[in-house]
Amino acid sequence: MRYGSHIAVDQVGFHVERGEVVGLLGPNGAGKTSTLSAIEGLITPAHGTITVDGADVARQPIEANARLGVHLQASSFQAELSIEQIVRLYAGLYGVRLSHGQITDRMRDIGLAGELGKPFKKLSGGQQQRLSLFIAVIHQPSLLLLDEPTAGLDPQSRRQLWQRVDQFRADGSGIVLTTHSMEEVQAVCDRIVIIDHGRVLATGTPADLIAAHRDDRRVRDLAHGEVTLDDVFIALTGAQTRD
Known about the structure:
Elements lengths: L1 E2 L2 E2 L13 E5 L6 H9 L10 E2 L2 E2 L4 H6 L1 E4 L11 H11 L6 H10 L15 H12 L6 E5 L7 H16 L3 E5 L3 H7 L2 E6 L2 E6 L1 H8 L3 H6 L6 H9 L6
Parallel strand pairs: 3-8, 3-9, 6-7, 7-8
Antiparallel strand pairs: 1-2, 4-5, 9-10
């Protein structure tokens, strides 16, 4: 991925299996957003290939998008539309037929059955996130992108979100997750990919990466007691604060 002469993503490669959560980790400016934008088809890479469940994002964008779900940190649904109107709109875009009763039942599952007529702008942050996640998977995508999904959520809302993610994984969806919380990564990710300056620095399970780097002097200098994934991440990407 190039922006003028700047190479934002340089030969980043990874795969996601069905039923697997892969954490895409990196400090600010590492290339995560550009990578996700390329997967979504929003930006065309200068080189490389991206496929979603066999569909090439560049050559088969309609097929790829039909297999893809995206849940962003900030939702941007039409503020004046009600929950039911938003659900009907996006269900229609994906060719999913839902009756009023079915919508009510599904909203009950995420605690929004009593809010069907409320405009989106009147929902709390946690309610907006729950609706956004529902819309992202309304068409049962093969791959779900979660970009900082728990930012700003209280502990109860975070717990509910991860319960939903566990259900998607059990149903066979592959998931790519970006987050700055190493605790969340260790709790939910099967594998992680650490990138910085557009390149892959390390990949593996959280436990494997800790084991592989626990004797690294940079890691030992950071650790206070047992080596954590946070220690490994900072040792690999540097302790300097990024904007």
